[in-house]
Amino acid sequence: MIKQNKILNLTFTCFLTLVAIFFLVRMAPGDPVERLLGPEATFEEIQNYRNDLGLNDTVLTQFKTFFLKTFKGDLGRSLFKRKDVITLLSKHFKPTLIIAFFTIFFSSFCGITIGLISAVYKSKKPDHLLRFISIFALSFPIFSLGPILVYIFSVKLQLFPVSEWGDGSFKYLFLPILTLVIPLSSILSRFTRNKFLEEMKAPWIEILKAKGLSNFSINLRVLKVCAPSLLNVIAIQLSVILAGTMVTETIFDIPGMGSLLLEAIQNRDYPVVQGVILYSTLIYMIIYFLTDYVAQKCDPRISS
Amino acid sequence: MWPKNVIQGLVASMKLKKLKIKKNGELLVGGLICSTFFIWSIFWFIYSTIINGSIKSPFTPKMNMKYELILPFQESFFLGTDVYGRSLFQVISSGVSYSILISLTVSFFASVIGLIVGYFAVSGSNFIKRLFDFMTNFVFILPSLLLAILLMSFSGQSFLGLIMVLVLTGWPAYAKLARGETKRIMGLCYLEGARAMGASRLRIMLKVIFPEILPVFIVNIILGLSGVIISEATLGFLGLGGSEYSWGVLLSMGKDVLLEGPHIVIISSMVLGLLIIGLNFFGDGLRDFLDPKN
Among A274, A304, B2, B175, which residue's Cβ finds the most Cβ atoms within 10 Å? Predict the structure, then answer.
């Protein structure tokens, strides 16, 4: 069973995150109404509009209304886009979900395979080569990897369109996913290698060897023991990508969560910022508990 | 002065260390790359502040729209020029010294704050323990990019503001490390010995615990430098950085003119990648070097 204490703790922290962001956004300089109405608006117009939106109330009152409304499932309306926040969220969720799914799928596959190969051939040529490649891949941050990939695949080879989302079919998806998969799979491969070698030192491996098991089946068993911690790392990355990858989405013009949040923060679009943050904390909590549950199923030692 | 066997021991350990360095290829390559960049940034700093400018307006490559987007090795620009007609070599040099300066400052402050908070999260009074633990976890969980964007809007786009933001989002990682290490050392026997000999708490902190944490900390600071460089450049890329010399600004400019002048993105990515590879190698090699198990 998941401990009650843990649930309470996490819920409390997520709630605090939401509160902190709520107040920080409102305290930050810059006024959404002034941006919305433009520089020619008079003081009175601005004040009237602010009154309509409820922005002239004290921050605490605003927080109270936000809190009560959220419980009823109403996240308010965007100040700039004239749409409900929930509609906006569900519209921007789809691209992020597609990208997150494929990214996690391919990078777990590649990362774990590469990590296993370099762990099995420890300190031999394949290991050195793969470790060098993974450090090399990690050293290019997303905002330099993305444009380089665009240059290679779209400009030189002309295989894929340059930085656009279009209808979201495969040719638009390939480059953003590749940009995310390269660093992620190298992180995963390094982690897999270290974890695998750490578990290989355990005393029960000796027993398996003494029993005369083949190398292959020993590796398989060790991998099973590594599974929960691998799952943990993958889950953290999944929640990060699902919360929106601002840089990738900016490079490839993807209408996802990250670009929604970035635009909302720059415009001080309070309801949208709150909505996205609420969504990402919820995603974080759900994934956290799911991983906890699955990890306990994999490795009964954890629950004790 | 010294007894003979001490000198012999020292010589032997020096030889061993030399051997260890020679065997450790990562440390050599990483150290070479890092020191090259460091010397480059210092030379550029001296050149741009003292020889070719004033202290008040450092790092200012000249703009000249006539030379807009010239490819490498043409018209006496050996790396070409950027969108504003500045020599790309000068812009990149400014970027190198700027990001090295920022990453060193930020890592210094973040690690000092982290060390102190982490130490007191283990050895302080009950209230302080809880408070510091909570603070660390709370800042750790907040989405750091979002926090940075919001804080940047408070401080305006200034150099000091940028450093403050990066320190604020960077210290929890060090605090977690320091907390774990302090907890480990607290259980060791020789700490009990020191306490039994009547060492004060301050003395234990400065003479027993900090020196023990230091090797792990230094490795993590070096590995963290690349993280600071990347997050600073990310802010610049999203248009929230403090300076026009950030890598991120250069790259986001290069991304827009990818068809006309691909050299901007390619060259600056290569230099940035090389710096980060150097830091990663150096950190990894240093960890192996300092690890007593090897």
Answer: B175
Higher pLDDT, B88 or A117: A117
Give A127→chain B minimum CA distance, Å.
14
Which chain B positions have a beta carbon within 8 Å of A269's beta carbon? none
Q: Does B165 touch chain A (CB under 8 A)?
A: no
Please give the structure tokens belonging to residue A54: 């409820």
Single-letter amino acid, residue B294: N
Can you tell me the ipTM of this complex?
0.79
Whether residues B281 and A135 touch (CB distance < 8 A) is answered with yes
What is the C-alpha separation between B107 and B148, in angstroms, rounded? Answer: 16
Chain B residues in contact with A244 (beta carbon < 8 A): none
Name the β-bridge partners of B18. none
Beta bridge partners of B64: none
Contacts A–B by Cβ distance under 8 A: 102
A185/B53 Cα distance (integer angstroms): 45
Which residues from chain A sit within 8 angstroms of residue B157, using beta carbons? Answer: none
Please report the beta strands in A53-181, taking only residues with DSSP state E, as ranges in sequence order: none
How many whole angstroms separate alpha carbon A278 and alpha carbon B282? 40
B151 vs A contacts (CB less than 8 Å)? 24
**CA-CA distances (angstroms) from residue B96 to B92, B99, B233?**
6, 5, 11
φ, ψ (nearest 5 deg) of residue B243: -140, 155
Lookup: tokens for A9: 């703790």
Picking from A175, A173, A50, A24, the residue whose alpha carbon sits closest to that of residue B143 is: A24
- Measured CA angle at A98 (ends B142, A228), to 5 deg: 60
Contact A21 B154 (CB under 8 A): no
C-alpha–C-alpha distance, residues A186 and A130, integer Å: 9
**A139 in reach of chain B (CB within 8 A):** yes
CA dist., res. B210 & res. A228, Å (int): 34
B32-75: pLDDT as tens digits? 999 999 999 888 888 877 776 655 555 566 666 666 666 666 66
Quick: pLDDT tens for A155-203.
888 888 776 777 767 788 888 899 999 999 999 998 999 889 888 888 8
* Token pair belonging to A258: 């990250």
Q: Tell me, yes or no, if A265 comes closer than 8 A to chain B by beta carbon.
A: yes
Is A201 in CB contact (< 8 Å) with chain B?
Answer: no
Instruction: List Cα–Cα distances, B173 to A129, A138, B138, in angstroms.
Output: 30, 19, 12
A71: exposed, middle or buried (Cβ count in 10 Å: 0-12, 13-18, 19+)? exposed
Measure CB to CB from residue B255 to each of A136, A139, A251 and give the nearest one. Answer: A251
Q: Which two tokens stand for residue B94?
A: 């400014």
